[in-house]
Amino acid sequence: MRTLIYIELLKIFKKWRTYIGFIAIGILIPLAQWALYAGGMKGYQNMLTRQLGDAFISGGNILNGYLLAFISLQGLYIHFPFLIVLVGGDLFSSEATAGTYRILLTRPISRFKVVTSKFIAGLIYSGALLLWLFLLSFVVSIFLFGEGALMVFISKIYIFASDDVTWRFLMAYGFAYLSLSLICTLAFTFSSLVENAIGPIITSLAIIIVFTILSFLPFEVLDSFRPYFFTTYLDEWRLFFTDPIDIENIIKSAIIIVSHIIALYLITLSLFLKKDILT
Amino acid sequence: MNSEKIIEISNLTKKYKKLTAVNQLSLNVYKGDVFGFLGPNGAGKSTTIRMLLTLINPTSGTIKIFNKNLKKNRTEILSQIGAIVEKPDFYLYLTAYKNLEILAKISGIDSSKTKIMEMLELVGLKDRADSKVKTFSHGMKQRLGIAQTLIHDPELIILDEPTTGLDPQGMKEIRDLIIFLSKEKGKTIFLSSHILREIELIASRMIIIDKGKTIVEGVVSELLNANSLSVSFEVDEMEKTMNYITQSKWNEYYKANQNGKLLFEMDKELIPKLTKYLVEKEIGINSVVPIRSLEDYFLKITEEGPV
Question: Structure pTM?
């Protein structure tokens, strides 16, 4: 199985499209770092303290590596699905398009191993992309801007002491990884059904966009449906930047996400085991 | 003929909704056979080959390879099969070397540089080992396809139209390789081809299918000789020759004058007798060409049913 995973990763990382996500993050984060370094944080600070203006006088500088890391995660996280599905949607369909199913599936390996190795390779790619974001937005930002208290706005303003932040980021990235794995698995499932990569990429994105909009639309009629939209749970990593942390809600969301991942994997496996290879 | 069955297909059927692609097909391939698999487009050849390689699930029927049920022993059986299905497709963004290396690794066999280079040398691609496959011509891909087929030294080789798109030299090379693998290495070869002459030259046994059904199966030489064949005689003096023919028993075999050549339909053993007769009558014979070939046979039986 390790050999198969290695081969799947080799296939992923030998394609230029794999690097689109890395390049995009590699451009955006340094650009944001440069913009903040050159222009400061006044705008962001004003936005956070506007509501408190009548009651408090704010002073000092909230700009530090932690804040930049939080802004990066919050900002880029929304766009991450676009980068993930580029590879997830290609995992099976590229084999169908290129006709390489015929050399792959006539080898003495089980289809179970083929599906599982592709699934794991997709998860590794998602992790690598998130790790790249973590390195640039967290490690590099702290190196450039230093540590300090983190001031964030999630329904209300929270201020965390410098020594109370790193673990929150690690947990948030861990949860974000689960969410991105679900997106990758969704694209992976669609990829196994069709013979070109465009279909699964567009379908996955369409589903994510539609469900995200439904999750956030402020209509009461949707309240009873919202728990059934998987997108409702994808950005629960933000709960790690609240106090007290709603750990029960986080665990519930994580379980729902993992259940979706397992269900999609099993559906893909079941369909692929019976699939006739006609390409 | 060796009596050990390598492939045993019984009542194999594949249905796609209303379409029956393969209908109750049965055939046997014996050890050491070069088995020709013939049929017009849409006859069900590729579907059958895909079922042999577990790419397609049969609707009904059984396939035994190496005397083992394919469904139950898939991995074990596939480890002893090398195949090209339709056109040889590879990971275009990888080099020829890397493609062979990953296929060797997947097969769980020796993927050393020596082994890979040996295979590339066998098919004349050693110098292009580090070139990406996307830069390869069709002929080069076809040769790389042969290399991936042989890399794990399989006992059974399944080739689906292996010479398609090759130039005459390339076709001859592949044919020679198939003969070498059969005669020198003792491999069993299941060969589908639309080039009927190829089957005639290479195959020892063959089957012709149409609309998913068996039309005829047997030893190639016996099938071709089972019926009388057409022979074309090109002679010096047409009028004089025709006089002799019409006044002799050979008139009953005479069929037509086709572009200055006399066409006869007769059993194979009568050809030297007719030649002798014409020579005795001092007729100059420029050529004697038997026209009866697999192509005629194939066209005749796929149009009219078994002959």
Answer: 0.81
